Amino acid sequence: MTLLEIDPAMRFVGIDPATTTGVVALDIEGNVLVEKLLRGKGRDVPGGITPEQKVSLENQLFQLLQPGDVIVKEGIANRTPKLITTSKIHGALEGMITRKKLSFDEAAPNAVKKFVAVTGWKGQQGSKERLKGTKEKKAAMAAAALKHFNYSNPSNDIVDAYIIARISLNLYLARESKPMLDTFPYQIEVIESILNKA
Predict the structure, then answer these.
(1) Using CA atoms, how far apart are residues 72 and 12, in angstroms rounded to an integer?
(2) What residues make up the domain containing 176?
């Protein structure tokens, strides 16, 4: 099977779950088909998500997903500050994917960073400093997506979802014994680590 023999309607979806969830779908050549930010509708509560927002988020994802989508979602980060809210969102979105009769793989947050060579450090050898705060970390991911894929978006959630969608596409190609699009050694390691978990 060549890339041309793969169903052209197939989509490779990356989901970055949060109160504002980024969703990106790519075609088999890595072209962007969908870039969407999902946010549950309803009243905001500080540091949380209401049941109506959660249902709204689920419904929006349900509408976006299509039969045959190959999906990777980012997993929950260790020591996430809002673990209960994060767990609710992840569980809701996983349930919605399952209800759509689809399956998904999960990429750990560190694997998503590794796929674009973001280490959590900045500076030169011998004078490196840790990236500080969400803003610096997100800026590093945006710069890495631009460098690796010539991809940019003003939303950090969409940038992360794009990188996750690239993982989805490469994971599919690896499972089909086809050449991956992204072949730096660290990218191959990320794909192999997900394959070895399955």
Answers:
(1) 8
(2) 3-197
